[in-house]
Amino acid sequence: MKPAPVPVPSEIATTLAAARRARRTGQRALGGRLGISQAQISRIERGLNDPQLSTVQNLAGALDLDLMLVPRALGPVVSALIAEHVGSPQASSATAKEQDRPLYQLANEGEDEEEEDDDGNDEATYVA
Fold first, then answer.
1. What backbone phi and psi angles, to 5 degrees, belong to 122?
2. Where are the domains of the chain?
């Protein structure tokens, strides 16, 4: 007996739909670029079918998104970074210099002076 298909998780489906709408791209146009039907795009965005991983990767790529696996323990950290990046109230309070720095850059990278800890060792501070 074949197992029932597992639908696309709602977070992935809604993220794909939101990214497509943000780019003002229709389902038919997106499907045409990827060689899949508008109806299939609709079912994926509503979480009603179980597309192949390659289809989800192609959709994500066409919408300028990356599909990645993140260790569960880091899920909250990644979610917080995404929330800050897309313009949550916390992100708007960041200084212009902080907003220009990539999310992964060290706090003191690009500065002339390096901090030293009590042992006299160079210390880099990671920022989110």
1. -65, 140
2. 10-62, 72-123
The pTM for the full model equals 0.59
Give how far Cα 124 sits from Cα of 58, 113, 116, Å. 37, 11, 9
Structure tokens at 57: 């990767």
Q: Decide: 125 and 108 in contact? Cβ < 8 Å.
A: yes
Question: Based on the number of CB atoms within 10 Å of its own CB, is 62 exposed (0-12), middle (13-18) or buried (19 or more)?
Answer: middle
- Please give the structure tokens belonging to residue 23: 């780019």
Task: Provide CATH code, domain 10-62.
Answer: 1.10.260
Which spans in 23-113 are helix H? 27-34, 38-45, 53-62, 75-85, 89-92, 96-100
Average pLDDT per block of 10 residues along the chain, 128 residues long:
68 92 95 95 92 94 92 90 71 47 52 48 48
Q: H or E element: which one contains 11?
A: helix 10-22
